[in-house]
């Protein structure tokens, strides 16, 4: 899924840089280093910013009366800045230069449209007449004549790429409502002209392009709220006259009745594009917003309203969007993950842990030589296996450790898988053999997955090695629901007394659990999100024993910290409801009640904080708690209703949830009013002069 | 009561200059403030922090340091290299002496106020003797390389500590020798940057406190040259520092806009050992806090964002009152806008130019809160630039719009503006009478036939304006007993009979214009006058004081009116008295003689004398409540104060005609966009 993250302001803009037609900036270009951008306004000034610090690092202006006509770009090889002012005057300077009047100057013989700077190819200058030169060539003779390729056409947009070692420039032009595309390969001196297929009643508004496998993909935003795709092959030697490019619809910018009037867009990855525009539903005022669309599924993934208006320009560098919003330049980060079926249908594992691939890359094993090496590894594993029969356990483990120290081998995962399988096989044949420390150590390297050693968890379940199970649940991304359920059942059935003697990773619970859960005399008043549990008790429920039950259910943890940590590991694992539910039905009623009680406790704990998150590392999220609670109730509905000791719990749970629902619905009501207030406030602030009516009574 | 058509003006592009330095009058109740444009202001603590004196700036006279010496004499020094004494009665620079050491970065007076020490660009520290009528060079102390950025006298006047780049030095005043030099960057590892000592204070215990560009506040033992304590308060520079008179509290200001208080506290309860502890952080500013001061009851800070913030120390407060509130001043306590009612023009006063605008108009009407469509946009007619380095003291446009006058420190200018269709011609009136400049306030008569000029020594000049574009001096009024203070506020009656003048000693004199005689003086009241105006029908003078009291004085009867006595008997509403910004303008509605229109920065009020005064239990700002009540229920709730807080910050409000108002606002956000970017701090992990 794609998501927009928090935004921040990069800088305020002057009066001309604001919103509206003709406002905005001239351009925003990447700076000399990562995290740097070069901002050129529509006047005389260019500024270099360090984005993460929100700080300007340098600012250059041309003299009064001059105007920068071509956005400042950075030559990535020399770290020089290049700008053109008054169409023809080229300036080149370095970071340390302050006064642009004193830096290198060259007056060219033709008007420049834009300069494109390529990371490995140097800057390329595109003239308004369609001529193209690399900067090096141009600087050798600045006054050289520049050919005029396009006569009456006007350049609308241009872009440059590196194809192999040669720069490729693409630009589009317009003449009398017809659009043309030119592709220029600099080294080959080849020029191709194409004509865009005409479209009734709509015309191109904005272009973007990318290159892959010798083919340029040109995307174009049309005024009929659709994005079309054109493919332009680069391997073309026939100099034909004006081929016509046929288009294919990529995306229709409409979602459930509302239509996005796009003004500009960028491509994020092969499946996602971001569009800035105004979203208009029928009968409603249109709102400017930034949206991310999935082109594969044709869906709107996320959007953000921009109530202060934009200039219609959008840039995207290093996973950050840049656009003007009101009187400021806003930066907003985004996340764009490849859409996966798992994310769509199941509960994907929380990706808090750093991204380490825990799957075997089966492609690496496809290669001939790797298969050979894999076989050799297998023989290593076999060798171990044979050794196991005679060598002492410690000597054997030492040898394995040596193997593990060579962890950077490409097929290391496969090797470890073989070793584990061999170990597990031995455990199965010899019930007394169980190298628990070593297994823990291997699992903690994070390079394993369930599919690589399917029997490991089964053996651990048999041995009731809860610590290993906990680590597996935390580390493995692909545990089948059946095993997850088996773990849950083991965890719930083990006695607290036994668990207290066992070493379990407690980091997910220590931050929120009350250790003295037996001390029931301490009665503290709990207020969850402004809701007092006692006040919410209804009159019809006048059971006198209820109060002690209530405290036991809501306030104190019904399980010990070790058990809680193990259950958290279960909550954290990935699952799909359809597959888990049948297994969950087999959970004994007493254990189901205990688990529900623990979930209720977690839910109350989560709700105490305004951000509804529990402190600590890997602690369960409120969504996980809610999902499991629903699952458990679904699986044991009749049992829960019949069971006398569950009745109290259910009724408390019901009351608590009802109070939460009420509380949130009240918040929702307030939200509407607050938003309205904010809207009024914005409206009021925009003008410099108005005549208003004021009544005093 | 009625509906008004409000011209809401937000195009007055005033950007107040940043605060450069502050100085509390020793044992006195006044605070001197200098801005980055060279303007010097004096705030009176006793008069509810009223900005009672303003000396406009001068491009050639920057002020880097201010200090009070010899009682109530105020001295300033700056990068021009001169030490200037200010005449607070005549509101101008009285005399200047060249420091002969290049630009002056710092200045400090000794504890008795008899000597001034200055720190210069060339690295010298020079002593000057304060003598009657000026200052006299005394001698140089031991000179070393490196500009002296800050200075502080030891309370016994025997030593001076001076901060420079990377170093602080202590001088013996008697011998003039350097007796200690301490490298302040010694403790920083791998120093590549220079460490600038921005501010310094010498405590009586012998401890020297410095604040520097590394964000540290350090305490040094000057005799041993050792570091006693070091507190890093900020990642950016600590620019300013001030110590309380009892030396138990310090305030520092940083370039991130934060200020911090340090207090000398016992290590534990009842212990004699005390240490400096950073106690309170405040974030009132967005930009550099270049100046701080420590009064006996408050922490005072001034920033480049032009704000002056007075933060009272609650532990020093006996009761909740006017002094116990945090106050922020961004805008001057006087008018910078004048209005030509008949011609519907506005004149905006900037530091070195004037702008004349014509208001737009509409032909529609509407209900409360509606924005009406404009049929004519406002128009910028003329920009008048003042030549020379001096800033403008005051300006005014006549009610008919055809005269514009302004004054700088040395010159008085009068222009005749003529409108022919769409074209405008501005002609300077060639021979203005030779008056002793500057003028502190200008006021045209209601018929635009004469101009009143507030001048020094309590005098008011009356100029007659001639149809053909000339003018002549008719008369000069002076208070019968004389006064050394300049007149700073004027009010003329609509019938051309009376003019009232307020001078710096807060005395209000009323003069008769028909027979050019002193008519009477309003009984003295011990607070500063912030605004006054004469009622067009009754010729009652309405006076607003800085303690928020309102008086009405009948000029013909030479006594307070019955209504005014009633107000004093009943007392004004508590909420009204607790407001923290002064009334800066009063006007009337000729069609509704019982109405008085007044405003401050945060509210506009129509005071209806025919209605009962609210008592403390009533809601003062009741307009929104009233609007929800049915017509018949309103009557019981009505009271005299009809307050509207919709327009903020309100720099000027006036009545154009019977139901048409003009309100000039200056949104703080608009000023902020004009300021340089503040130092950005990471918030919430962004």
TrEMBL record, chain B:
- Which BP terms in the Gene Ontology apply to this protein? maturation of SSU-rRNA from tricistronic rRNA transcript (SSU-rRNA, 5.8S rRNA, LSU-rRNA)
Q: Which GO terms describe its cellular component?
A: 90S preribosome; small-subunit processome; t-UTP complex
List, in alphabetical order, the Gene Ontology terms for molecular function in this entry.
Answer: RNA binding
The membrane-spanning stretches of this chain are none
* Domain of life assignment: Eukaryota
Name the InterPro entries on file: UTP4, WD40/YVTN_repeat-like_dom_sf, WD40_repeat_dom_sf, WD40_rpt
What is the designated name of this protein?
UTP4 protein
* Source organism per UniProt: Grus americana (Whooping crane)
**Lineage of the organism:** Eukaryota, Metazoa, Chordata, Craniata, Vertebrata
